[in-house]
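ok so for the tutorial part 2 we go from a plain amino acid sequence to predicted structure tokens. step 1 is just haveing the sequence, like this:
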Amino acid sequence: MNIGEVAKISGVSAKMIRKYEDSGLVPKAKRNVSGYRSYSENDVHSFRFIKTARSLGFSLKDIKELLSLWKNKKRASSNVKKIAQIHIEQLELKVNEINTMLNTLKHLTKNCHGDDRPECPILDSLSE
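step 2 — the prediction. this is what the tokens look like for a chain of 128 residues:
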């Protein structure tokens, strides 16, 4: 398969496929006699794996490790679980940060008159 076919089937753009190859996340594609990239069904599965992992917010570093574990049939699932648990902790921290920002902004907008007066608690808070 060529890069366009793999992109269509996997849902990963050709640009991202090239980026993943250049970054070492996946091995460089084999080239056919005319120099075009040539991919296998296994490559499609790898790109789908990457796409799903990215949609869950895993970093490229984590995805590289997860890909390696996925391909290693003798892996310990505890290694996979550890990566996922660390990612969960990071996501929970981000959620808490976002909730704090959201609550602060709700409080500020609730206390802003939103009229023709120049006083604005939102700007006052940002300038502190």
